[in-house]
Design goal:
- It is a single chain.
- The longest helix is centred in the middle third of the chain and has 21 residues.
- Among the domains are: 247 residues, 2-enoyl-CoA Hydratase, Chain A, domain 1 (Alpha-Beta Complex); 43 residues.
- The chain is globular.
- Strand 22, helix 11 and strand 23 form a beta-alpha-beta unit.
- Helix content is 29%, strand content 21%.
- It has 568 residues and is an alpha+beta fold.
- The strands form 9 sheets. A 7-stranded mixed beta sheet has the order 14-15-16-17-22-23-29, sandwiched between helices.
- Helix 1 packs antiparallel against helix 3 and helix 5 crosses helix 6.
Length: 568
């Protein structure tokens, strides 16, 4: 299992024991708020749907003035950002310090259970706790109180995902996300209820601490983002799809979340459950970017394809699309229906998501557009793009459409906190043609599709799923998705002149063709918060699934697919 950390900052010198003044904190908090006032696209939606108005600063500034030290102030900044309930937004501390207990937790049937134990840190001979044991408290604090304490450091568009994010901060405290991580004691008392006996047992766990903690705000060298990008293959694989004349602005093509915690299977090629008896695996070994195969149920041949990430690395995107196209061609010939696993897909590039969706159908379809929070920067970027294309001799009809988009942005810029209408992220319109090869041959799947989604299906993965739902290509099975429905700033933006903190900001809002209803929010066409609402509910986060490698969940979605194909 791999922990997914926020980007951390290296190169910190030992901090001076200096505290920010009240005036510095007030000025800096206003700078943080100004970032969202100017650039945050879903402002009106958050104000109306969840009742949080980020522009109402008076109560926040009063709390800033009452903060006793730097870390109480940083806690408050993180709380302000997390109140947006947005999986794309983060308040980042310039620190690479972390404290690791060696435990992984998750939520099963509403209980906080051990999901995995790092046996290198916690050997079984001295720590017999196992997966499935229930955590009751840490250092005397009940787990419910710990969740409430850490939840303000885990912004998410999905309430259950926010709780699951908070669980990891109980056992793995990265200061980049949790300002007071450096105050973690050397040893903590963890209390568990053992599943084997039902008895309650307490163990001392020594925290493994790494990195340089930020212990006070003072003059420090400029933080440098650590390069966490994976090494790319030396040669790129060309996409099998016919080339498009326009692929959108690079700055608007980042649509992914970076979870705080180590939810098992996020971005992993392998599914988080065992496949059924008789499953014939095709991809999912070695350097494959996909997992695929076939199995039979109810007299029907079912295809299975897991897309674990919407690749924003151009070297991997062509390879992944080529694999999807090959598998879709096989499934078209050999299956009656296709199950597409998007569980724990954190998103990535909307253009990859659009291309993958175009391989799921043989008919034109409509994709969600993006309402952009208009700023002078976006005007400049579109003006430069149009100038470069005209200079290169591109067809006039392309620049004519782009000039229309620019006119929409200019019009919105002239308004108070204006947003554009829905604009295409990756094409010249919102009506998308099905995938064709360079010879014009259709490549897509023509039979029913069912998607598997959960509360960590996010961002560009939700754009893909919305395309399938909105156009009647297929249905969704699982739990409501993350609701991270926008594109996010390519790099964290400096918000703290004194604390040297950073934040990310959602700069556009994805808009579906029609309003979507959910239990928690008013009907609206947004992916933000609402996410993908499955036609059929099924939850893998149960104790029975934990004990049986997801077998009950597999039986449920298989039965749902058979009913779907039979029209029941």
């Amino acid at each position: 299992m791999t922990r997914f950390l926020l980007a951390v900052f290296a190169g910190l010198a030992a901090p001076l024991c200096a505290q920010m003044s009240t005036d510095q904190k007030v000025l800096e908090f206003q700078q943080l708020a100004a970032l969202y006032a100017k650039q945050y696209a879903p402002y009106e939606w958050k104000r109306d749907a969840i009742g949080f108005d980020l522009l109402q600063l008076a109560p926040w500034l009063e709390r800033v003035r009452r903060t006793g030290d730097d870390f109480e102030y940083l806690d408050l900044c993180a709380e302000y950002v997390s109140r947006l309930r947005d999986g794309h937004t983060r308040f980042l501390i310039p620190s690479n310090f972390s404290a690791d207990s060696g435990l992984f937790l998750d939520l099963y049937d509403g209980k906080v259970l051990v999901d995995l134990v790092d046996r290198q840190l916690l050997p079984a001979r001295s720590f017999p706790v196992q997966a499935g044991d229930e955590l009751l408290s840490v250092d005397g604090k009940p787990v419910a109180d710990l969740i409430a304490e850490f939840r303000k450091f885990s912004p998410s568009g999905n309430d259950r995902a926010a709780v699951r994010d908070a669980l990891d901060l109980i056992v793995f405290r990265a200061q980049s996300a949790y300002p007071r991580a450096h105050q973690t004691p050397d040893v903590s008392k963890f209390q568990f209820r053992r599943q084997s006996s039902g008895g309650v047992e307490t163990y001392d766990i020594f925290w493994i601490k790494d990195g340089i903690p930020l212990t006070a705000i003072g003059p420090v060298p400029s933080p440098i983002l650590q390069n966490t990008a994976q090494e790319s293959p030396r040669t790129a694989v060309e996409s099998p799809l016919a080339p498009k004349p326009f692929r959108g602005l690079r700055e608007l093509r980042l649509a992914k979340i970076t979870p705080l915690r180590a939810v098992r299977g996020i971005g992993a090629v392998q599914p988080v459950f065992g496949m059924p008896t008789g499953f014939q695996q095709r991809l999912g070994r070695g350097r494959d970017l996909l997992f695929s195969g076939t199995f039979q149920s109810g007299g029907l041949r079912l295809g299975f394809l897991r897309i674990s990430y919407m690749h924003d690395n151009p070297f991997l995107a062509g390879q992944a699309l080529s694999q999807i196209a090959t598998e879709v061609a096989f499934m078209e010939r050999n299956t009656d229906g296709l199950i597409v696993d998007l569980m724990r897909n954190p998103g990535g590039d909307p253009c990859f998501a659009q291309d993958a969706a175009s391989l799921m159908t043989r008919k034109p379809f409509q994709i969600a557009g993006a309402e952009i929070r208009a700023t002078r920067d976006w005007i400049n970027k579109y003006e430069s793009l149009i100038f470069d294309l005209e200079s290169s001799g591109v067809d006039e009809w392309i620049t004519r459409l782009l000039r229309a988009m620019l006119g929409d942005i200019r019009g919105a810029y002239s308004e108070n906190r204006g947003r554009t209408g829905p604009l295409p992220l990756c094409d010249l319109g919102l009506e998308i043609e099905p995938a064709r090869d360079r010879a014009g041959n259709l490549l897509g799947y023509s039979k029913p599709v069912m998607m598997l989604v959960d509360d960590y299906t996010a961002s560009a993965a939700e754009l893909f799923a919305a395309s399938i739902q909105d156009n009647g290509i297929g249905i969704a099975f699982g739990m409501p998705s993350q609701g991270a429905g926008g594109t996010v700033s390519v790099f964290p933006i400096a918000t703290g002149m004194y604390s040297e903190t950073y934040a990310t900001v959602t700069q556009s809002l994805m808009v579906r063709p029609a309003n979507i209803r959910s239990a928690e929010y008013p009907a609206a066409p947004y992916l933000e918060n609402i996410g993908i609402q499955p036609e059929v509910r099924g939850d893998i986060m149960t104790i029975e699934n934990l004990r049986n490698n997801g077998a009950p969940f597999v039986s449920e979605f298989t039965a749902a697919m058979v009913r779907f194909l039979k029209g029941e």
